[in-house]
Amino acid sequence: MASRAEKMEENRAKLISSARRAFAKKGYAAASMDELTAKVGLTRGALYHNFGDKRGLLAAVVEQVDSDMALRAQRLGANENDPWAGLLAEGAAYIEMALEPEVQRIVLLDGPAYLGDPSQWPSQNSCLVATKRTVETLIAEGVLKPLDPNAMARLLNGAALNAALWVAASDAPTAVLPKATAAFRAMASGLLKGDESEGW
After folding, report:
1. How far apart are CA 26 and CA 61, in angstroms?
2. What one-character DSSP code corresponds to residue 142?
3. Residues 100-150: pLDDT tens digits?
4. N- or C-end of the chain: fewer Cβ atoms within 10 A?
5. Dist. CA 54–CA 183, nearest whole Å
6. Which sign, positive or negative, has the C-alpha torsion 156, 160, 166, 169?
């Protein structure tokens, strides 16, 4: 028999899963708390107990989706031949995910509208830490200019995030995407030590 803690964690996971589907399909504002709790056999009280309110549930869903995005981007980056190419691939992959309906609706449209500045989200801070580690390695290897690694990581992550927000909010996202990724790569390449045309 499951312990109380295990049952709470199971209920939490059910609510996040149900909300993720509902928010992706209908959007945060239109999703009914009663409907999404009923679909997993729970009550509105369970939602309040686990997340405080509907906004708290959105924060948990955004955290999950955004963390999934970062993990997918990192895996794509790991397929590249070197850390610099991997860093560029990660940024471009994150921007490209703005075309996915779930990502677009939950993370890039509803997330900022209801949770505020994405750069303050825990998932974005996790990305920042990972980017900073890569930047520090590339500086030590003489690939990047010897600038402040925290500043460089923030600018790289901020550029990818804002490019993704631009794609998601555009009336023609598929037309905007190549412009956004090309500009991201060009801007990031300005951090290279030596020939700044490398990596364009």
Report:
1. 14
2. T
3. 999 999 999 999 999 999 888 888 888 889 999 999 999 999 999 999 999
4. N
5. 37
6. negative
Give the number of other Cβ atoms within 10 Å of residue 45's Cβ.
9
**Tokens for 21?**
């589907």
Helix axes of 122-140 and 83-96: crossing angle, nearest 10 degrees: 150
Helix axes 83-96, 173-189, angle to 10 degrees: 160
- For residues 180-194, b (16+ Cβ closer than 10 Å) or e, as one string? bbeebbeebbebbee
Q: What is the DSSP string of 69-110?
A: HHHHHHHHHHTSSSHHHHHHHHHHHHHHGGGSHHHIIIIIII
pTM across the whole model:
0.87
Residues 77, 80, 86, 90: is their CA dihedral positive or negative?
Answer: negative
